[in-house]
Design brief:
alpha/beta; Rossmann fold; Hypothetical Protein, Haloacid Dehalogenase-like Hydrolase, Chain: A, domain 2; 4-stranded antiparallel β-sheet; 11 strands
């Protein structure tokens, strides 16, 4: 692996199992990585979850200013300045937009037939103001159930196709193993990567993105167009291996 000057990580099914907290070892190794380069998390999850699961363990690090958070599918960015977390930008959805999206999701759930064919857990709509997500198996399904439900993305591709006809004015992407994320058109992880590159003054080609959804239609795939280095992982154990390799090979601070 070519040593990058910046490392960016997806969260669910990359740093942690979907909707679960990360292993303590993962947080500890991220803290070590902060000592040698800027690190960002780009995720569909909201800022409160990241604050609880990562920031609370890392914010006493002398290198915390190297940590950047892009929650809600990069519709927002948080950075550490003047001893507090500040919003660098926020591109929230209006209430009218959110209601349009929620209505389209409810109709898609009813019309697609996906959930009648494969009932396991009831789907849930997760509204985070800046982004709305369809958790197809809700929040309580086990890792094994999620992994088995849509291994080839066929079910979510069907849902995505219906949603794209109903609300073509929004960005619709598949995340992790069971989620569909919806934001403003053009606001996705590629937007976040390009903004971050400009902010740091570091070319995208000298940055690394690590995620599990770099497959066609996945919410990580869009970063490829930026020219960033990418590394697809199958889950947190492989991500930990990538971080260990970065710690071994990137021995000087950038």
């Amino acid at each position: 692996m070519r040593c990058p000057r910046v490392a960016i990580f997806d969260l669910d099914d990359t740093l942690a199992e979907s909707f679960q907290p990360p292993a303590p070892e993962m947080v500890e190794r991220l803290g070590k990585l902060l000592e040698i380069m800027p690190v960002a998390i780009m995720t569909a999850a909201g800022f409160p979850r990241i604050k609880d699961q990562f920031i609370s363990h890392l914010e006493h690090s002398p290198h915390i200013s190297q940590f950047y958070i892009f929650p809600n599918s990069t519709t927002e960015c948080y950075m550490w300045e003047n001893s507090t977390w500040n919003v660098a930008y926020s591109l929230g959805l209006s209430e009218s937009d959110r209601e349009t999206i929620r209505k389209a999701i409810r109709e898609t759930i009813a019309e697609s037939g996906v959930f009648e064919e494969h009932p396991i857990h009831a789907p849930e709509i997760i509204d985070r103001d800046a982004q709305i997500a369809l958790a197809t198996l809700g929040l309580e399904a086990s890792y094994e159930e999620k992994r088995a439900w849509d291994p080839d993305q066929a079910k979510r591709k069907k849902l995505k196709a219906v949603l794209e006809k109903k609300i073509p004015q929004f960005e619709i992407l598949m995340g992790g193993m069971t989620t569909i994320d919806i934001t403003h058109k053009g606001i996705n992880k590629a937007y976040g990567v390009n903004w971050f590159s400009t902010k740091l003054g570091i070319p995208t080609g000298e940055m690394l993105y690590v995620g599990d959804a770099l497959y066609p239609g996945g919410n990580d795939e869009v970063v490829i167009s930026t020219g960033i280095q990418t590394h697809e992982v199958s889950g947190p154990p492989e991500t930990l291996t990538v971080i260990e390799e970065l710690l071994r090979t990137c021995t000087t601070r950038h």
